[in-house]
Design brief:
The complex is a heterodimer of chains A (215) and B (104). By secondary structure, chain A is mainly alpha-helical. In chain A, 47% of the residues lie in helices and 11% in strands. Chain A has 6 helices and 4 strands. Chain A has helices spanning 17-35, 52-62, 119-128, 131-154, 158-179, 181-194, and strands at 40-46, 73-78, 99-103, 205-210. A 3-stranded parallel sheet of chain A has the order 1-2-3, covered by helices on one side. In chain A, α2 links the parallel β1 and β2 (73-78). The longest helix of chain A is centred in the middle third of the chain and has 24 residues, at 131-154. In chain B, α2 (27-33) packs across α3. The longest helix of chain B has 25 residues, at 79-103. Classes of the chains: A mainly alpha (215), B alpha+beta (104). The interface between A and B is large, with 47 and 39 residues.
Chain lengths: 215, 104
């Protein structure tokens, strides 16, 4: 794909989804290797929306003695319509200012840092939940979101893609709530008071006696 | 002797998987086949519970050349799951037969 492709761009070819993600990651690494000269704690990619949170995190991190070393730096890539990417440093211990502004316009043509839909949810899931829950419940939910999103884009329906994204996010949190301790407590309470599985929206459940060893 | 407890949704999922004739289905297909009774947010939770009880089994879809996007998790019903479903269907018909004279 040439030019600055955006997820919501109708020209985007969803058949090359994985290729695009790999390319985006490679581009991130290339960008970073080119512009980063020292080890960083945090990368901020600015587009006017992501301004506050990284700055607060940076201030918090600086308050810890270990993080206050001279080799930690704060870099931000500046540009319009740029999204936060996962970047890692290679080199460090280079003296310099604690902040460095890198104009995004200096980046190679076509370089655009952007994340696939659901990548934030995926990162959250891996941070918050057990690997089993992620692998069996949350990861399939996000995968469905991604496939549906690309399907909508392939049909040249960007507004449907946006709706899929919203609905997928809601589904993700629905699954998360279903699986959490709160859901378990509600289920137990439901079973206690009504003798049924309260996590099910339907009204009845049944039990069957059977020996699994027969199989 | 183990007691298998099934909710309506879980029975429906088992029913859909067993009616796929050995074909493995993923969550969205189940949601689409259920005509609105299953929801995207909860279908994998029910499938997870069924898998814990050995009624369904899952695997990650194999990546074939030319396939794009992340791999899906696909599900199929186990022999134990089929047996449980058959028993439940039998039980249901027995209950219906028992109720019929009262209705008439």
């Amino acid at each position: 794909m040439t030019g600055r492709a955006k997820w919501s761009d109708p020209r985007f070819d969803p058949q090359k989804l994985s290729d695009l993600w790999v390319a985006a990651e490679a581009r991130n690494a290339e960008l970073y290797n080119r512009y980063c000269e020292f080890r960083v704690l945090l990368i901020e990619v600015r587009n006017g929306k992501w301004r506050l949170i990284p700055k607060v995190l940076w201030r918090l991190a600086r308050s810890f003695p270990l993080m206050n070393g001279a080799w930690w730096r704060y870099i931000y890539i500046y540009g319009e319509g740029v999204r936060l990417g996962e970047l890692k440093a290679r080199r460090y211990s280079v003296p310099g200012p604690t902040q460095r502004r890198i104009p995004y316009q200096a980046a190679p043509e076509g370089a655009r840092i952007h994340a696939p839909p659901g990548s934030g949810l995926r990162a959250f899931a891996h941070w918050w939940c057990s690997p089993k829950t992620v692998g069996r419940i949350l990861e399939p939910t996000i995968t469905d979101l991604e496939h549906e999103y690309c399907q909508a884009l392939s049909e040249q329906r960007p507004w449907k893609a946006r709706w899929v994204r919203v609905r997928g996010t809601l589904s993700f949190f629905e699954a998360l709530i279903f699986k959490t301790t709160i859901a378990r407590i509600l289920r137990e309470l439901g079973a206690l008071f009504h003798g049924k599985d309260s996590s099910d929206e339907s009204s009845s459940s049944s039990s069957l006696g059977g020996d699994k060893k027969d199989e | 002797m183990t007691t298998v407890r099934l909710s309506n949704k879980e029975r429906e999922i088992l029913d859909l998987l067993s009616s796929a004739h050995g074909r493995e289905l993923y969550g969205l297909e189940l949601v689409a086949a259920s005509a609105g009774s299953l929801r995207r947010g909860s279908v994998y939770v029910f499938l997870d519970r069924l898998e814990d009880r050995g009624l369904v089994e899952s695997r990650l879809e194999e990546r074939i050349p030319g396939m794009s996007g992340p791999t899906r998790r696909v599900y199929r019903v186990t022999a134990h799951g089929k047996r449980v479903l058959q028993l439940w269907t039998k039980l249901q018909s027995l209950q219906m037969n028992a109720l019929r004279p009262e209705i008439v």
